[in-house]
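User: Please run a holo structure prediction.
Assistant: Happy to. Please share the sequence and the ligand.
User: Here you go; the ligand is 2-acetamido-2-deoxy-beta-D-glucopyranose.
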Amino acid sequence: METFTVFALLLVILSVTTPAVKGKYYSGSHIVDVPTTIKQTHLHFFLHDTLSGDNPSAVLITKPNSKVIKENNPIIPFGSIFAFDDPLTVGSDPKSKVIGTARGLYASISRGSDLTLLFTGDLEFTSGEFNGSAIIVSCRDPMVLVKEMAVVGGRGKFKMAKGFVKNTAVYFNTTNGDAILEWHVTVFHP
Ligand SMILES: *[C@@H]1O[C@H](CO)[C@@H](O)[C@H](O)[C@H]1NC(C)=O
Ligand SMILES: *[C@@H]1O[C@H](CO)[C@@H](O)[C@H](O)[C@H]1NC(C)=O
């Protein structure tokens, strides 16, 4: 085959397989009709965050190299970051039925003695009506017994979700940091 023919053939193939490049990464914005009604779903479960033992569900990734900072919050000093993969269960008993996992990161974000985390987690459910669906929670998480947290989005049946969490510590060990948290979640979703 002559070089020209090969080149022409290549051009044809390229024009078929390569989408037209117009130098834009966005489409035009347009108004859409949103549903006038949305669903509200209530979720209730317990999150088990375990730092102690041979099989912890949360592990330290990094912590600051400062003695002063560590003295304020010895377990979770300011600037330390943890990864977690916490089971979600129907009851406060860790042996009760597991219905999902909370996976994400939390970081210690208070310079004072008022231990505060930034919690960013994807909570995916593994059974029932919402099997495979998830809520995304991302917000300030102070170490108080009862707190409110924000549901900022979701996946699956919770796509486009918004909502809030009432998060209550039913168990917290101040020595090793292990916690069992009761979550009442109100989710608004399409
Ligand atoms: C949840 O969904 C997964 C994936 O579709 C499936 O394999 C699993 O059996 C389901 N679990 C329950 C308890 O329905
Ligand atoms: C808290 O953790 C410490 C150290 O692991 C342990 O000795 C103690 O029994 C725990 N306290 C409670 C109330 O579980």
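The pocket of 2-acetamido-2-deoxy-beta-D-glucopyranose (ligand 1) is lined by residues 126-127, 131-132 (CB under 6 Å).
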